[in-house]
């Protein structure tokens, strides 16, 4: 064969391979979409008399390192979480631990994605929402709480919010929650509940509880983890008192979104929890405090689960546990977290920043997994789920389980994992990992975008963020359009190289070009980061409370960014 003929054959082979690689997941997606659109009703037989919608207890941890729960051999005492996450423990009714669970690199994007079922790519929530910022999850998005209300649920939010606070319309009881107890912003002192010079702890007692309804609660010197557990238990008990028979509970089950402050900085915990680790002489003091914070949060989780058991709700409860990002190990407010052996941490697109603990547990899980099977009482075997699962998948998965079609189901990035959890067949082969942005010396640095397809992971740019090897890695001042042809790229085979040590971009040019093309496709629907300051509605100052002094409170009327927000 001539050189020209060989080149022509090689080009034809490469193009054919790229088309096959690109079109195969597209074809699978089209088939799945066609199947989903063949009926306006959810596939799940929720109308069956044999089906009882579960109570849902969703626990969100803040900045949890992926090597820190006791189940990983960390040496940190987390017996309650261990019991819930241990696949061979029978008392919790079963567990599915998510081995490849992806989140976003930091708090606000993950929480917005969880609540909306959409990537930051399509909501604009790419940033950590700052204290004096009008940014937030766009008001046109149906939240998970909105959806569950349509399914008849009583909805509670407890703890950290951090998806918008400049206007009352952005706060929890305007976003589908019947009641809220916690703080609107992203961080605070665990005891004083102050953040940047003002107090931030509220009780919003009813839906649409804005100015004149939302109450500042004085809980100074009350450590937040047991405080939030106390409030979750109080709301749960009020729920049971108002629904004294089982039929009322079946008609209106309970959803509690319990978002702990722990284990985000500042490193604070009562001394008795630090003392548990005084013999760990090989640990730094920072690690000991962090361990105490995690143990205190785990104890609070145990208190809530015990209260569910005592109230008779636990037998029909689905518990979901998720982190919001990997532990901060290099950038940001570094704690004593560990993501060992993964590379990187919070604020990065390394696996240590965007993967972490996620699992399903509780007695209702076995019922949900086996519904629709011919044998209504098969034995459920707790297991580890080996397939891709992204935080955006919770909304469509729960929607199918409770029998409600999301209002904008055709616009979601999440996929229902119900069949995958039942059968073990993967529901998705690809996740868009997004961007990571962080401040260093008051300068914004952006990394990415990134995506994973099968075993391959691509990152646009020279680096996926700062880590132990390059703690001052430089990104770009603005997020770069995905799929730029003149950019540097990182390519990793995560099956063979889960620690991301070897860049294979030059060895696998066909794979790289295919993934670059995929980044270009995602770029077509890209929504830029929302304005992350108060320039469109200047901050008017704190509100004074006679008991606690200066208080954070929404300062805008109609949300200023909504007019510019496009629903995608």
Could you explain how this protein is built, in words?
- The longest helix is centred in the N-terminal third of the chain and has 35 residues, at 3-37.
- The chain has 568 residues and is α/β, with parallel strands linked by helices.
- Helix 6 (224-242) runs parallel beside helix 9.
- The protein is 28% helix and 17% strand.
- Strand 17 and strand 18 form a beta hairpin.
- The model is unreliable at 1-42, 44-50 and 562-568 (pLDDT under 50).
- The protein is built from 14 helices and 18 strands.
- It has helices at residues 3-37, 79-85, 107-116, 120-123, 144-150, 224-242, 246-251, 271-274, 285-311, 351-354, 364-370, 394-402, 418-423, 509-523, and strands at residues 55-61, 95-102, 154-160, 179-183, 194-195, 198-199, 202-204, 215-216, 254-259, 317-323, 358-361, 383-390, 430-440, 443-453, 456-460, 489-493, 543-545, 549-551.
- Strands 8-7-4-3-9-1-10-11-2-12 form a ten-stranded mixed β-sheet, with helices on both faces.
Strands across the major sheet, in which order?
8-7-4-3-9-1-10-11-2-12
Shape: globular
Distance between the termini: 51 Å
Tally of DSSP β-strands: 18
What structural class is derived from the secondary structure elements? Answer: alpha/beta
pLDDT average, as an integer? 89
User: Percent of residues in helical segments?
Assistant: 25-40%
Number of helical stretches of at least 4 residues = 14
Low-confidence stretches: 1-42, 44-50, 562-568
Strand content: 15-25%
Largest sheet: 10 strands, mixed
Rg computed from alpha carbons, rounded to a whole number of angstroms: 23 Å
